[in-house]
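Dear colleague,

As promised, here are the two records you asked about, laid out in our usual form so they can be pasted straight into your sheet.

NAME FIELD: protein one
SEQUENCE, THEN STRUCTURE:
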Amino acid sequence: MNIPTAWIERFGVFLQDPQAMQLGFAALLGMAVFSLLVALVLLVMGLSDPLRRRLKHLEASAEATAGHGQAGEGGLTQWLGPMGEKLVPDNEEVRSRIATELRHAGKRSPSAVNLFYGIRLLLTVGPVLLLLLVLPLVRISPAIATLIVLVAAAVGYLLPRFWLERAIRQRTLRLRRGLPDALDLLVVCSEAGLGLGAAIQRVARDLEVSHPELADELHLFGMQTRAGMDNKSALRDLEERTGVEDIRGLVTTLLQSMRFGTSIAMTLRLFAVELRDKRTQEAEEKAAKVSTKMLFPLIFCVFPSFFVVALGPPLLGAAAALAGR
């Protein structure tokens, strides 16, 4: 028996096995979906300008070399950036707001907006195409199938927005937690005779391990001042990048101190005292709300079980006595 005949017989046995046929069809369907997605990505990338794509790649490489690029973003930008570029709103106000929110989340790359919309497009179209290919093979009514497709598209469209808001909240919380330590170190450095720029650079080096996000922002402030930007403009940019209320108050206090010529060390010490008082008041407010928040678990969870344990045996005894009589 030659080799072609053996392969033909094996293929005939494969066709007679229903489970093997289903597995083979599922594998072919998965390969088709993957090939379709790759073709769409290549089509969108081919429609974009190669020169612009090359310039963006060089910008991303320069940022990664300087230490400001995000880890693993180069490959994503190369694939999803051209896709999201065509979905970026033409309204300058909307585009500026998205860019500001991405900066608050720690994404300072120039291609962050394009990457955000590219990920939104991928999460919206990818599951929908997959469901459109899989649902006809499942016995589901057309109404339920349409509902599943719409829900998948809505979830894919809204998921990047939820991620962005969550990233902003988490980063804001981390920056707020690291600010008191940074203020104490700034007070010590200022009273030791260092200027504002040198003090911030020293504090940034000391906070690299405990508070890396705040240290990164302070490092960027030092790089801006060394590049020729004055302290006032660098402080304003620090305020806009972070979007934290406490940092905004610190920048305003420092700018007023520079304007009126008062002592930077005394200004930082007073602001640190005010920040401690503010944190104490917030802690007292949360502690005062605990009793009110515990009321609902007590009423709906603790009290019913307590009543069952306390009043259950007497009620059972009374029921037995009444039944005996």
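NAME FIELD: protein two
SEQUENCE, THEN STRUCTURE:
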Amino acid sequence: MNIHEYQAKQVLKGYGAPVAEGVAIMSANEAESAAKSLPGPLYVVKSQIHAGGRGKGKFKELGPDAKGGVRLAKSVEDVVANVKEMLGNTLVTKQTGDEGKQVNRLYIEDGADIDRELYLSILVDRTVGRIAFVVSTEGGMDIEQVAHDTPDKIVTVAIDPEKGVTSGDVAKINDALKLSGDAAKDGESLFPILYEAFTEKDMSLLEVNPLIVMTNGHLRVLDAKVSFDNNALFRHSDIVELRDTTEEDEKEIEASKYDLAYVALDGNIGCMVNGAGLAMATMDIIKLYGAEPANFLDVGGGATKEKVTAAFKIITADPAVEGILVNIFGGIMKCDVIAEGVIAAVKEVGLKVPLVVRLEGTNVELGKKIINESGLNVISADDLDDAAKKIVAAVKG
């Protein structure tokens, strides 16, 4: 689960991280009072969407010469003018795609005198099986580009889970970021704070870009991006309350109600599979035969008829879907349950696109019998390769 920048900063502030004063608003009427509540005289007006690249983004409605989604303002009047121009319009960034995202929230923040911009993130480094800090002196830039062009400028410091962030770890991070004086002292407290927040709140990513050294020599978290492990949200009701469903795909929201693992993609072939590995293989083989998957959808090993029905309805609700591939290997999952769920869904929502079903495993003969006797126009497949060929051929006509 993702949250907005201002929410992430409030979470980190609760642990003692240095962040600027700021006010989130959802109406232009709130802009003046929000700005007047801050020290000033420099303000930053930030679009709050779940996507990066906001500063370089462009608003669809304002033309190519308009300012981006993060703007400096030198007066309260300037804040109000920017808010009126940004709020409610569609911001397009490199991460939103051409459709962009409507800006429904803005964060008005006190400005900062910046000396240097640094990059810091915490994530799970699966190569070493530990949580790790990833830091660079090249903050405020696209870290992917830095990694590609100058990988030597990115330093990873893995943390021993039994010891936490040690003085040795802090020294490595300070050295990698070239921090000294007050900034290095701030690092001694900040880095353990960020690690504590990451572990206690079950984060999957904590990114601070940029982490700044101000002209007074101290550190400040200038931006914050936080994602949480969905599987651990049951432990954090306070975090669940921060969820903004307007930033999520409606199909993914519906899938979450049934504990379905669903991710919308850009292709035209809908997939319903049991098991994440098999789902990935299914998407790969669809691409191998020249088409693109419309989604990742894992119904899980113990799905019920109701969950399968819901999954099928979610797939068919996507107008981009021109064909559906059901690929089930019945271990824990029973093929007859899948068959009953598919039939129930088709009878409820109809079937307007080609449907290929490949069943194998537990109760496979019963599953095939149920589908064959249903009267549905279903294309049967013997194996995954056969299924992929048939659905791609059916979609391409």
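A couple of things worth noting about protein two: The two ends are 39 Å apart (CA to CA). The first strand starts at residue 22 and ends at 25.

Best,
R.
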